């Protein structure tokens, strides 16, 4: 538990690479814990390891398909990879599950990007 809390603190301080190192022993014993995968995914996202972040968030959704925050942050991760259609799908689901204004804003942002991107005409 101490290592997990330390990793949380490091992610909050925007020190994701250190957080990933701290989480390594936690993963050995708790890789099936949603909170561990979510924190790991955030650390990967903040360190621009988008594919690894995506896999961690997908693991969270395997464990709990109704986790709207995991869908939101997965959508943001896909967006950072330029995978806008996939991102929109996740953001739509997240906004449907949780009508928080921040979720609606994220969905509106991705819809605007798709609408103005000539690849999607």
TrEMBL record:
Keywords: TPR repeat. TPR repeats lie at residues 34-67. It comes from the Bacteria. It holds the Pfam family TPR_16. This is Tetratricopeptide repeat protein.
